[in-house]
Design a protein that fits this description.
single chain; alpha+beta; three-stranded antiparallel beta sheet; 51% helix
Length: 483
């Protein structure tokens, strides 16, 4: 750990500190500007997601031009380069997987593979087949917190079953099942979802140094990925002596929803600037808007709070009371329809799913506040379906509906906000709404150049789209002048 402290201080401008209520954390030893890289790390181990419809390269996570390993028939690679990078570890894993019975292969989840690779990598580093470095060694994994004492009995049984399967795969007589189970608890608290530039999940990786960074619902940094490499970037000016903070969860929900998610998966209660407002007037209003009901008067945008005297909900703007029976009736209908729509979508009945989600939207418009997260998520789903169907005009309508809510629930610099502007810009471009495309793509660039940097293929493509749109607008303007 002392070597890590020296490296982080010398190369990154960071120090490892320990806070009474938060444990280890990373603190800046210099100022960081918006968009500046704070820390980059390759995973100690990583695996792609398991999907019935799409496989990915085990090294770089691409789904293009991949071929299955001819020996184990489990792992995929996009070419000899990635296979060579992964060969020292996969050579051992391949032998083990090739011996597995078919029914064991079906139980081979990404979590199981991640754990098998964790132990194989440790073995190879112990034997000096794979070199160890200050930021790449098993002792960093060993120092991660497992929170095993807070895990419920049902989850403990699951970890034990998973550990037993790892033992069957590895066939190591001295393997401690209890230690493996505890490592599964470490993965649950410390592993990160690897996403592409548009934040679509690709796999899971363990980044022991980045795992030192603590959570905030109002983070000053963001974690993004370039292939398997994880990068933490500053989203705002971070002065020397500040703690580096990222978000572990979706931060768009109410304080109670965020606290519940953090407690269930990470076993702590957040005390960030947003969470300490729990129960205060502003927090109550925010929760009622994000997760509550709309006023009975559809021309009023007031939020509703429970009224004990009338056994209903009263609008805090116009004072109208909405009865609980009416709300329950719509809520039950909405829940039933949402479940049917989800089944239709997962069964690839796209047209049927779209019709159902449109009905869900109508019910939610009657039930929920216009700033509702539930309504937002439904409109996001409709947008995704419409884009898959290449109905660009309707898709743009729905994308525009989501933008005001994104502006409400996310700070000015947030990757999701930038990506939604990017989607809006693309749709405007497809429909030849050049000026609108320029506006949306410019907004996307202003955000994403900070959260994503400027050198990735995704960002270069975004810059290209914006320049193309500007060139077309300029051409149109010059053509009008010539007339």
């Amino acid at each position: 750990m002392e070597e890590l402290r020296r490296l982080l201080s010398h190369d990154y401008g960071l120090s490892v500190s320990t806070l009474p209520d938060k444990g280890r954390c990373l603190v800046t030893t210099r100022d960081f500007s918006p968009g500046e890289v704070i820390l980059s790390e390759e995973p100690y181990v990583s695996v792609p997601n398991k999907s019935a419809t799409e496989s990915r390269c085990d090294w770089c996570f691409t789904s293009s031009n991949i071929k299955r390993c001819s020996s184990c028939h489990v792992v995929w690679y996009c070419g000899s380069k990635c296979q060579k990078f992964d060969w020292k570890l996969h050579r051992l894993e391949c032998q083990l997987l090739a011996q597995l019975e078919k029914h064991r292969i079906t139980s081979l989840t990404p979590s199981i593979r991640l754990m098998v690779k964790l132990y194989l990598r440790k073995k190879l580093q112990d034997e000096k087949v794979i070199p160890t470095t200050v930021m790449d060694n098993y002792s960093l994994v060993k120092n991660l917190v497992s929170h095993i004492s807070g895990v419920g009995e049902t989850q403990l049984v699951l970890y034990a079953q998973m550990a037993n399967l790892v033992s069957i795969i590895l066939q190591w007589p001295n393997l401690n099942i209890k230690d493996v189970a505890e490592n599964f608890s470490k993965l649950a608290c410390n592993a990160h979802t690897i996403c592409d530039s548009e934040l679509i999940p690709l796999g899971t990786g363990l980044y022991p140094v980045i795992s030192i960074i603590n959570h905030s619902c109002y983070p000053n940094s963001v974690l993004v990925f370039d292939g398997r490499i994880a990068t933490v970037r500053a989203m705002q000016q971070i002065p020397k002596g500040s703690e580096v903070l990222i978000s572990y969860i979706e931060t768009a929900g109410s304080t109670m929803t965020r606290q519940k998610a953090l407690k269930e998966q990470y076993f702590f209660t957040c005390s960030c600037p947003r969470c300490i407002k729990l129960g205060q007037k502003d927090d109550i209003e925010e929760s009622a808007i994000l997760e509550g009901y709309r006023c009975k008067n559809h021309t009023c945008d007031g939020f509703l709070l429970r009224d004990p005297e009338s056994k209903g909900f009263i609008c805090q703007r116009c004072g109208l009371v909405r009865g609980i029976e009416e709300i329950l009736k719509i809520a039950i209908e909405e829940k039933t329809m949402s479940e049917k729509a989800s089944v239709a979508l997962s069964s690839a009945h796209t047209n049927e799913a779209l019709d159902m989600y449109l009905m869900v939207e109508k019910l939610q418009v009657k039930l929920c506040h216009s700033g509702s997260i539930k309504l937002l998520r439904t409109r996001e789903t409709i947008l995704k379906i419409l884009m898959e169907m290449q109905d660009w005009k309707k898709a743009l309508t729905y994308c525009r509906l989501t933008i005001p809510i994104y502006e409400r629930v996310y700070p000015n610099i947030h990757p999701l906000r930038g990506l939604q502007c990017y989607t809006c810009g693309k749709l405007n471009w497809f429909l030849r709404y050049t000026e609108e495309a320029i506006k949306s793509l410019t907004q996307a660039v202003d955000v994403l150049r900070i959260t994503h940097g400027t050198t990735s293929p995704f960002m270069k493509d975004l810059f290209g789209k914006l320049e193309e749109a500007r060139a077309e607008a300029s051409y149109k303007l010059s053509s009008m002048d010539d007339q």
